[in-house]
Amino acid sequence: MKKRAPLLTAKVFAALLSVLILQACGSGSDSSENNGETASADPDFQISLAQWSLHRKYFGDLQARGGWQWFGKTLRENPDALIQEGEDPMEFPALAAEYGIKTIELVNTFYYGKANDMEYWRAFKQKCDEAGVSVGLIMCDALGNLGDADDAARAQAVQNHHAWVDIAKFLGAKTIRVNAAGNGTAEEVAANAVDGLSKLGEYGATQGINVVVENHGGYSSNGAWLADVMKRVNMDNVGTLPDFGNFCIENGPDGCVNEYDRYQGIEELMPYAKAVSAKTHMFDENGNETNSDFSRIMKIVKKSGFKGNIGIEYEGLQLSEDEGIKATKALLEKVFAEIE
Q1: CATH architecture assigned to 38-338
Q2: Are 269 and 238 in contact (CB under 8 A)?
Q3: Of 42-46, 304-308, 317-321, minimum mean pLDDT range
Q4: CA dist., res. 88 & res. 36, Å (int)
């Protein structure tokens, strides 16, 4: 039996990061300085930062605060109360710039009460301009199910996304990320999702905005199912956001009981991809993600012909969010150089 590599401790992480920094400074072929930003060795890919990587910074320990049921109730009744005292999502652009990252991926639940507050978004855009950061996409949750079996509820879910399409356009983003959820059989949810996505895609097209679906649990974590939905929608501005780690179709009391093969799923979703999410949880002593073979995945991504943003989305507990973001960025830069 192959011995499993030990997990990356904070001490080992610090040492690894020092080595990576020294390597970056000493090897002109792998990286270069550009206004404080490390350029990718592969010009096809750029690194973006998903705001969910900092959800503990902004939301704190959700389980300790009341769990997901409490989160949903508070989100509906007083969304600003979710943000930890002393924290401000308005500062996310400046924070991303500190990592040398110039494209950010917002999460609408950090700004849930600001959907119709254009004064807020004018101020946010100013923060982006000051930091030299652009918004690539907005991840949208808690707006209703686009695959809802009820026609009226599905139509309302489509309508609820319109405000975020408008915000994306105002901020200069290209894309919103949505969910293709619903109740019923796989075929029933697929048919309803095709309807909901098509109608939202029509509105997105009027604003020049893409609508992408992430593999995000349930049927959507079945790569073949989601690829089939995309084929049936058949719209240029409706696509996918393949996530490296969200391939659990069904959870049980002790974890995932039905998991789709992530490499097969990514290969099935990449033909429709308009962005990619590099999910990380844990790292070994060599800085590799222990659940996903990043080199194997990025070869699939490159083979598909995709060019664009690869978004850091650290969700682990092993490292702090700051360390996890840095470790994911270092891993992506290493893999980009390897597959050049």
Answers
A1: Alpha-Beta Barrel (3.20)
A2: no
A3: 42-46
A4: 24
CA distance 42 to 203: 34
Total Cβ atoms within 10 A of residue 307? 12
Q: Are 207 and 169 in contact (CB under 8 A)?
A: yes
Closest to 218 measured CA to CA, from 246, 176, 188: 246
272 backbone dihedrals φ, ψ, rounded to 5°:
-110, 5
Domain range summary for the chain, segments of one domain joined by +: 38-338
What is the value of pTM for the model shown? Answer: 0.87
Q: Any residues with CB less than 8 A from the CB of 287 and at least 6 apart, and which?
A: 8, 16, 20, 327, 330, 331, 334
Burial track 211-250 (b if 16+ CB lie within 10 A, e otherwise): bbbbbbbbbbbbbebbbbbbeebebebbbbbbbbbbbbbe
Q: Are 269 and 311 in contact (CB under 8 A)?
A: no
Please give the average per-residue pLDDT across 293-313, as a whole number.
97
Mean pLDDT, range 87-101, rounded to an integer? 98
Q: What pLDDT does 71 receive?
A: 97
d(CA 284, CA 294): 13
Q: Would you call 299 helix, strand, or coil by DSSP?
A: helix
Nearest to 243 by CA among 316, 329, 301, 304: 301
Mean pLDDT of 241-267: 95
The backbone region for 217, taken as left when phi is positive above 0, alpha when psi lies in -120 to 50, beta otherwise, is left
Relative to beta strand 175-178, strand 45-50 is unpaired
- pLDDT surpasses 80 at 12: no
Q: How many residues does the chain have?
A: 340
Is the confidence at residue 333, as pLDDT, over 90?
A: yes
Residue among 154, 146, 60, 136 at smallest CA distance from 93: 136
Residues 6 or more apart whose Cβ sits within 8 Å of residue 276: 241, 242, 244, 301, 306, 308, 309, 310, 311
Contact 247, 215 (CB under 8 A): yes
User: 């990449």: which residue's tokens?
Assistant: 270
Give me the phi and psi of 273, to 5 degrees please.
-75, 140
* CB distance 216 to 277 below 8 Å: no
